[in-house]
Write a structure and sequence with these properties.
Zincin-like, binds zinc ion, alpha+beta, Neutral Protease, domain 2, 4 domains, Immunoglobulin-like
C-alpha cells in the first residue's frame, strides 16, 4: 500500500520580520509518539549548519487540540501518542542570503527545504504535498513561484506553473532537493535537447536574458549529450540571486541555486565573453554537471544521506574535483570560450594549488573526509594544512584524463569513465564504493583502459606528491612553464587591516615564520620606515633574496621586533602554451581531447 502523503504548507508569515510559517501534517503518526527532525546540514555543502537554531517557535495539534512537544536534542522533537492526524507548525527565521539556507524580506523569499521542512521520522519514503502560499497583503500581489518542484496536478488546490498552491515531491529527500524562489523575478526559458529549462533572476539587474539563455542552452546541450540522451530530469531551473558582490552555487537534482554579482551577468550589447561573465558561466556549468556527478552518481556513503550528522566520504575529489575539471572544459568544448582562455584558466588553477604548502601535508582523500572540520572551516593555518579537493581534484582529473588518453593512444579518456559511472552507478542508484585507500573509480578506469593505475591513484589521491603535469602534457603538444615572482619572498599572505599590513597566513617554513612572525601580526615598519599595504611590494622589490630586514610589528597590543631573512621569489605564475613544433600524433591527441 502506498503511504498517505505528508502534507506541508509554507507561507511568508511576516516578511518584514523574516519569518516563515511552516507546517507538516502526518496522517498516521507513529503510535508510540511521532518524532520530527530538521536536517543538521544541506547536501552539497559539507558543514553542520544546525538549521533548527532558526526555529523560533514550534507547536503541535491533533484532533483540534494542541499537544505538547518534547525536545529530544538540538533538532529533534517528539509528540505524545495521538489519535488521527498530527500537525506540527513552526516559525522559522530566514535571514541567510546564501544558496544554502532561507531568506525572506519584503522584496523576495527563497528557501531550501532542508532549512525549513521537518522530517517525520519513519515517513521518509512517503510522498509529499507542499502548499506554497503567498505572503498576506496586496503588496505581494505580483509575486510568483519558481522551483523545479512539480505542481500537484490532479490535487485540489494544485498550483499553476509559477503560481502559488500545491506542489508535490516523491519523498522527503526530493522535497528538500528543490529550492524555491518567490517574488517578482525575471524569467528566461529555453529548451536543451528538448528539455524545458528556466533561468530565474531575482535582485536588481540589467541582465541580457537572451544572451544568457543562448549561452546556457549551448552548455546544457553539450552536457546532456556528453552523458547521453535522454537527460535525467524532466525540466531544470537555474535560480539566480544577483547582488552587489557575491559568488556561490549549490547543486540539486533538477535545479541549482546561484548567487552572483549583478555585474557578472551579461548586459545588452556586450561583445565577447568578459572574464566576469565567463566565471559566471563556469559556475552554471559546474552546478549543471552535478546533475549527474553527485546528485545521481553518488558516493555509497550518501545513499542515503545521514541528515543528522557529518556524512563522511573520501571521494569529494571525484565529485567536486572532476566537476571542476569539466565545468571549464565543457565551456571550451561547446564553444563558449576559446582555447587560450581555457589554457589560462587551467594554468591559474595549477598555480593556485602549487602555492599552498598544505598540498604537501594533506591528501585529497583526507581533505574530502575532513571537509566538515577543515575545508569548510578555514582559518589562518588552512593554506599550510589543507589542500582543496576542488582545485587539486580538478588537476587530478586533468592528469588522469591525460594518462588515459596517452596510455591508450586516444582510445579511452576520462569522458568514458564518467559515462561508465553514469551507466553503472548513476542510472542504477548504486553508490560508488570506497575504502580508506582505494575506490571503484580506480577499478573502473583500469577496466576501461586496461592500464594499471594503482600507482597513479596512490600518488595523486592517497599521497601528497605533486602531479607530473609538465610530463603528462607533453604528448599533447602543450608546454607548462613557470614564472617566478619579482619580489623576494616574505613567506606570508597579507591583507589590508585598516591601512595596516596584516599577516593573514604565515607559510610553513618560510622567512616570516622562521623569524617568529605570526598570523594576525600587524606590520608597522621595515628597516625603520613605515610600511603600508600599498607600499609593501615595492619595498620588498628593492631588496634581494638573502637580505635581512628589521620588521616592527604589533602582536595584539605589544610592539615587537623581528629579523627576517628574505627568500628567493617563489614560482608564481604558470603558463600553458601550445608547443610550436608538436608532432602530428600530439596534434591528433590534442584535437580528440580539446576539440580545438
Ligand atoms: Zn560543486
Amino acid at each position: 500500500m502506498r503511504p498517505a502523503p505528508l502534507r506541508y504548507a509554507i507561507r511568508p508569515l511576516r516578511p518584514e520580520a523574516h519569518l516563515f510559517e511552516v507546517s507538516c501534517t502526518v496522517a498516521a503518526p507513529a503510535p508510540a509518539g511521532q518524532r520530527f527532525a530538521l536536517p543538521a546540514w544541506i547536501p552539497g555543502s559539507y558543514l553542520i549548519r544546525d538549521f533548527a537554531r532558526h526555529v523560533v517557535a514550534i507547536r503541535a495539534e491533533a484532533g483540534g487540540k494542541s499537544v505538547r512537544l518534547a525536545k529530544l536534542d538540538k533538532h529533534t522533537w517528539q509528540a505524545p501518542p495521538v489519535k488521527g492526524a498530527l500537525t506540527v507548525t513552526c516559525e522559522v527565521y530566514a535571514w541567510d542570503l546564501s544558496v544554502r539556507g532561507a531568506h525572506l524580506d519584503t522584496t523576495h523569499a527563497f528557501f531550501n527545504g532542508a532549512s525549513v521542512f521537518l522530517r517525520p521520522l519513519g515517513h521518509e519514503e512517503a510522498p509529499c504535498l507542499v502548499d506554497i502560499q503567498a505572503p498576506p497583503g496586496a503588496a505581494y500581489a505580483d509575486w510568483r513561484v519558481a522551483s523545479a518542484l512539480a505542481p500537484a496536478r490532479g490535487e485540489k488546490g494544485a498550483a499553476a506553473r509559477h503560481g502559488f498552491g500545491l506542489y508535490r515531491a516523491e519523498n522527503y529527500d526530493a522535497l528538500i532537493d528543490h529550492p524555491v524562489e518567490m517574488g517578482n523575478f525575471t524569467l528566461g526559458s529555453f529548451k536543451a535537447c528538448g528539455v524545458p529549462h528556466e533561468i530565474v533572476v531575482s535582485g536588481r539587474h540589467d541582465c541580457d536574458m537572451e544572451r544568457l539563455c543562448a549561452d546556457l542552452k549551448r552548455i546544457c546541450e553539450w552536457q546532456i549529450r556528453f552523458f547521453g540522451e535522454p537527460a535525467p530530469m524532466a525540466r531544470y531551473v537555474f535560480l539566480v540571486t544577483a547582488v552587489g558582490d557575491g559568488y556561490g552555487g549549490l547543486e540539486h537534482r533538477a535545479s541549482t541555486a546561484l548567487l552572483c554579482a549583478r555585474d557578472d551577468l551579461p548586459q545588452r550589447g556586450m561583445t565577447g565573453t568578459p572574464e566576469r561573465y565567463r566565471t559566471f558561466l563556469g559556475l552554471c556549468s559546474h552546478e549543471y554537471f552535478h546533475t549527474w556527478n553527485v546528485k545521481r552518481i553518488k558516493p555509497a556513503a550518501f545513499t542515503p544521506y545521514d541528515l543528522d550528522a557529518e556524512n563522511h566520504t573520501t571521494l569529494l575529489w571525484a565529485f567536486e574535483g572532476f566537476t571542476s575539471y569539466y565545468d571549464d572544459l565543457a565551456l571550451l568544448r561547446c564553444g563558449a570560450i576559446a582555447l587560450d582562455d581555457w589554457l589560462a584558466l587551467t594554468a591559474k588553477n595549477l598555480a593556485n594549488v602549487s602555492r599552498g604548502p598544505g598540498r604537501l601535508r594533506q591528501t585529497l582523500a583526507e581533505s574530502s573526509f575532513d571537509a566538515w572540520s577543515k575545508f569548510y572551516r578555514p582559518d589562518e593555518n588552512t593554506p599550510n594544512a589543507v589542500v582543496s579537493y576542488y582545485a587539486k581534484g580538478a588537476l587530478v582529473a586533468l592528469a588522469l584524463d591525460l594518462t588515459l588518453r596517452a596510455g591508450t593512444q586516444g582510445r579511452v579518456a576520462l569522458d568514458d569513465v564518467m559515462r561508465a559511472l553514469w551507466e553503472r552507478y548513476g542510472k542504477t542508484g548504486r553508490g560508488v564504493g570506497e575504502s580508506a585507500h582505494d575506490s571503484d573509480i580506480r577499478r573502473l578506469a583500469e577496466e576501461l583502459s586496461g592500464l594499471s593505475l594503482k600507482r597513479f591513484f596512490d600518488d595523486a589521491v592517497y599521497g601528497t606528491r605533486d602531479l607530473p603535469l609538465a610530463r603528462l602534457l607533453k604528448p599533447f603538444g602543450i608546454a607548462l612553464e613557470w614564472e617566478a615572482g619579482k619580489t623576494p619572498a616574505l613567506g606570508a599572505r597579507t591583507s589590508d587591516e585598516g591601512g595596516f599590513v596584516k599577516l593573514a597566513t604565515v607559510y610553513d617554513g618560510g622567512p616570516a615564520q622562521d623569524a617568529g612572525l605570526a598570523a594576525g601580526d600587524l606590520l608597522l615598519a621595515l628597516d625603520g620606515l613605515r610600511v603600508a599595504p600599498a607600499t609593501l611590494d615595492a619595498r620588498l622589490a628593492r631588496r634581494r633574496p638573502g637580505d635581512t630586514l628589521t620588521v616592527h610589528a604589533f602582536r595584539r597590543d605589544e610592539l615587537m621586533e623581528f629579523r627576517v631573512r628574505l627568500a628567493p621569489p617563489t614560482p608564481e605564475t604558470a603558463h600553458l602554451t601550445l608547443a610550436p613544433r608538436a608532432t602530428a600524433q600530439a596534434r591528433t591527441l590534442r584535437r580528440q581531447w580539446l576539440g580545438a
